[in-house]
Amino acid sequence: MKSFFNEFKTFIMRGNVLDMAVGVVIATAFGKITNSLVNDIIMPIIGKLVGGVDLSYLNIKIQDAILDAEGNVTKEAINIGIGTFLVTIIDFLIIAFVIFVVIKAINKASEKLIKKKEEEEAPKGPSTEELLTEILTEIKKK
């Protein structure tokens, strides 16, 4: 039993598992931010543009609620939540766009670092012009 826990401890302490755990926590927080952005900022603007409608409440009614004689609901209404679906699509597009921009920036920074490192590691020698001048001088000597 002790070896099982030691093996589990080794597994948990691997760098990639910890990186993944940090990524999940950050992604959860990021999801809350984007949900707020979509629900609290973007959707009210879109709703205003389409005539003051809150799109999250936009539903297609398939069946009305069934009431008893006293007015109590005996069977709930059946709706297709098209508005909720639209909000979810917008939320996804915003997340995908932000991730695209972040990865693009990381790739660009990485390319600059690699290029700078290659330039620093490149052997310092005479320029092409200096080499051609030396070759021409040697040819003139002969």
Describe the structure.
With 142 residues, this protein is mainly alpha-helical. It has a single domain (2-141), classed as Non-ribosomal Peptide Synthetase Peptidyl Carrier Protein, Chain A (Orthogonal Bundle). Helices cover 70% and strands 8% of the residues. It has a two-stranded antiparallel ribbon. A two-stranded antiparallel ribbon has the order 2-3. A hairpin with a 5-residue loop joins strand 2 and strand 3. It is elongated.
Q: State the fourth-level CATH superfamily.
A: Large-conductance mechanosensitive channel, MscL, domain 1
What is the number of helical segments per DSSP (H or I, 4+ residues)? 4
Rg (CA only): 32 Å
| CATH class (first level) name | Mainly Alpha
CATH topology: Non-ribosomal Peptide Synthetase Peptidyl Carrier Protein, Chain A
* Unreliable runs: none
Spatial ordering of strands, largest sheet: 1-4
What structural class is derived from the secondary structure elements?
A: mainly alpha
Brief sketch in words of this structure:
The chain has about 140 residues and is mainly α. The protein is built from 4 helices and 4 strands.
Task: Identify the notable features of this structure and list them briefly.
single chain; 142 residues; mainly alpha; Non-ribosomal Peptide Synthetase Peptidyl Carrier Protein, Chain A; two-stranded antiparallel sheet; two-stranded antiparallel ribbon; 4 helices; 4 strands; 8% strand
Topology diagram in text:
Elements: H1 2-12, H2 15-49, E1 60-63, E2 66-67, E3 73-75, E4 78-80, H3 82-121, H4 128-141
Antiparallel strand pairs: 1-4, 2-3
Helix pairs in contact: 2-3
